[in-house]
Structure formats: structure tokens, C-alpha cells
Amino acid sequence: MKAVDFDYAQPATLDAALELLSREDVMVRPVAGSQSLGPMLNLRLAQPELLVDITRIPELQEIRREGDRLAIGTCVTHARLEDGDYPDVTRGVLPSVAAVIAYRAVRNRGTIGGSLAHADPAADWVNALTALGADVVLAGRDGRRTVPMTDFIVGVFETALQPGEILAEIHVPALSNQARWGYYKVCRKTGEFSHATGAALIDPARGLWRCVAGATSGKPVVIDGPALFEGGCTEAAMAAHLAGSPAAADPIALRTHTVALKRAIAQVMS
């Protein structure tokens, strides 16, 4: 199949993009790397009347250090994060996560903001940035608002974005020198979306002990506290934390999520 007919605009500023996205007379969608939206257009799962290409907006391509955090523009590609040409406050976490996203061809085009806005539960940035305690900055015609990642992902392909808003920036807090990180995902082959993702972070300077179970057919499940790090990552414990998720009622899925998180924790504790 091919996409339905649509108009195309490529604004040079964020204000111009927001003006187009606020139109109510047509169905409007922003587009960046198009690694998810492109196939949806061709399958006619998405049928916008106007596509607003935001990739030429300079401020959406910036990466800069702001005190104890890193500000990443929504149009920064996975490949750029993998290559590390920026002041990485995460001590290697961002490049290592970017490197396991799909294939290099996808990473050359796909963007961090597009991945978050698409909100696939198996997406690496959805889970990794939740574990890191990142915030996202949402821009609209009435101004900007900052939303924690734990509140931004609402459900499967659902976010806190309101009509006319765009995800403009991601703020990633710096990790201390004592921080330890683990990340593991279960895939049948390289490049596939994960069937279960585990992320684990200990950062004594922030008093943070966090585990995240991802790809759970819902928003990432955040488990704070030292219990899972101290031998508490069992199937029974995971069933309790995943209560309400389809994974909790499926023995195979439950075991897969338990293994993914156990292996992420093992990376932290080794």
C-alpha cells in the first residue's frame, strides 16, 4: 500500500512549526526520522492531511550541558548519541543504549524524540530514560512545560502530549562517579524490538536504587528501592510488581521479564 495524499511543510523555527501543528482545519502530524511514522503512513494506519517536518529546526538538533543535566533536542539521532560527540553526563549509558537500537541504518535516521513520542513499550529510550530519571520538555503555543518520564508515557503508544504540542527537549540528569548501570533486553535476533527489557541503576549520590521492567504491554514499570538488588528479583516479586499487566498472567512472559531484570541487576552488582 501507499500513503494517502498529504501536504508537507518544513518550517525553519519551532514557533512556525507550532503554528502549523495548532491548525484545526486539517489533521496534522509532526515528522522527524520517520522510522515509525513512515511504515504507518504506507499501511494507512496514520492518515494525516499535513506533515510538519521538524528536522531543519536548529534548536531541536542541539545537545548541551546545563549544570547537572544534559539537554538533548528531540531531533537528535540515535547514531549521534551512539557516536558520543557531546558531554555525556551519563558516563557511557547513552551511547551504550543507542548502540543496541535496531541497525545503524535505522539509527542514522531515527530520533530520540520520535521514539519517545511514538511510545512503543519495547523502545529502548522509553525504558532507559525512565530508569535514568529524565524529564521531557513539551512545547506548545502557550509555552513550555516539563514532565517526568514516569508521567510522560501513559500507556501503549500513549503519551502526555496534548493537541498542538511537540516534544522539544529531553533533560537527562548527570550520574555520579559512584553510579552503576545495567541494561538487558531479550530479543530473538539483533535489531528486533525487545520482548522484555530490564534496566537497573544505583546512584548513591542521588540516593537512587531503581529497576525498570520494560516491554510489558504498557508503560514502563518502575521499582524503586534496594529490595530487588538484594536478591529479591524473583518471579513472585515480579508478578506482584507487574500486577495488571498481561505479563503477570503469562508464565513464559513473567519468567522472561524476571530474567531480563535479573541480568540487568547482575551487571550493576558485578
From TrEMBL:
FAD-binding PCMH-type domain ranges (all copies): 1-177
Molecular function as annotated in GO: FAD binding; oxidoreductase activity
Keywords: FAD, Flavoprotein, Oxidoreductase, Plasmid
Pfam families with a match to the protein in the record: FAD_binding_5 (PF00941)
SUPFAM superfamilies: FAD-binding/transporter-associated domain-like
InterPro entries: Diverse_Substr_Oxidored, FAD-bd_PCMH, FAD-bd_PCMH-like_sf, FAD-bd_PCMH_sub1, FAD-bd_PCMH_sub2, Mopterin_DH_FAD-bd
Domain of life (superkingdom): Bacteria
Classification via PANTHER family: XANTHINE DEHYDROGENASE SUBUNIT C-RELATED
Protein name per its UniProtKB record: Carbon monoxide dehydrogenase
Organism: Azospirillum ramasamyi
